[in-house]
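thread: overnight batch results

M.L. [08:02]
morning all. the overnight job finished for the chain we discussed friday. pasting input first so we're all looking at the same thing
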Amino acid sequence: MKKSLISILVFLFLQMSLFAEGLDGIQYRDDTDNKISIYTLKIQNADQNLQIHYFSDYEYYTVTNAQSETVSMNFRNSIYDSEYNAVRKSDIISISGKINGKIADKEIKIDSGSWYQAAEYSLMNFVLSGEKSCKYWLVSPADLKATKFVAYNEGIETITLNKSKVQAYRVRVTLDNWMSVFWSVNYWFRASDGLYIRFEGARGAPGTPKTLVEIIGEQEI
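M.L. [08:03]
and the structure it wrote out:
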């Protein structure tokens, strides 16, 4: 209990310092099978929560509380005629709106575990807490299926990022079931403040092309 409280206080301190004025745009370069795209993550204070805005060829907002857990999400993709809201109520994530032009009103049953829709941000709390592992839920924006993952803190290592050496926590993420032996991905978070700076792995089933994501810029409001 004491360790959990300390980790939350440490996270809140870093949260206030890193996001005190908000980040107007954290830009990332996404390379999937040699197809390059740039996406932006904006983080702003919203009452007692943080609003995280992700946009590229589609966009979504998530609202995240002080424990880095997702409270709600709004997703929009005009190309696929999809727009819906997702709100957590106890162990239910309620969806209302449309996906691929069809009504998407449904309830997704999960358990009491955390919902980390913006995992890149939410795992920041985990890497700075000193805990070795954590479990969380994530809802696929494409088909509204909830999957439970396990994240393992593999410790700090030195990586090369934009031709510079950076100390970063490496976090291995896999499925919370027997299929974990077939799939895992890696995230890296800057050791100085926990900011997400790199991702490497396949975002789908075995055989899916690998993706490399790296931070290329950050700008304070």
